[in-house]
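Action item from last week, closing it out:
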Amino acid sequence: MSNALHNGRQTSGGFMPNNEADHRIANSLAVISGLVRVRAGADQGHANETFLLEIADRIDTVAKLHRLIAHPNSDAIELHIYLNEICQRLGSALTTTAAPSFSVSCPPHQTVPFSVAMPLGLITAELFSNSLKYAHPAGLPAKISVSCKPIAKDGLTALQFEYEDDGVGFPEDFDIANDENLGMRFIRSLSEQLQGTYIWLSDPLGVHFELSFRCERPV
């Protein structure tokens, strides 16, 4: 996908510039997301509703990324804008009780390529969704913090992504490293896609996830 983004796309009428192609992709994904949400509405009150809404939000995360790079001369994604919009959308779409409070902290104008922004955005969306579902079983609004900062790793430029909530933490018998839940497998797979190293910390004051990885371009 990333090669196509850099080189444009072939259509029946010839070569399509990147920004037009990404705009069309974003619109197509928005249509798909809308159809999934319609189906979720038909299943309101059933277990499928939450599952379908989470799928729609993952589609929206990728659609937003394509909209950001659809602008002319935009070959990099500004992390603060991208991650903040993901959290805002999820906080509005998935909250059934009190809305969560969240903060996103990234250095001004810190950018990453598409190949980094997409998995990092999906990781953020998955973690945020999990916090809304599990952080406070009693229904209290979650407090969530997301941050990203440049670091040196093996003498090279890298990024450190951190996420934490103020919930009750994982159950005592929960095996983070070997859990086969779809969401945890998804986070592990995306972290490996970034060739990053990650750690989980959990206690009764919340869950903390930290991921560090080399970046393809200076940040």
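Closing note: The CA atoms of residues 75 and 210 lie 26 Å apart.
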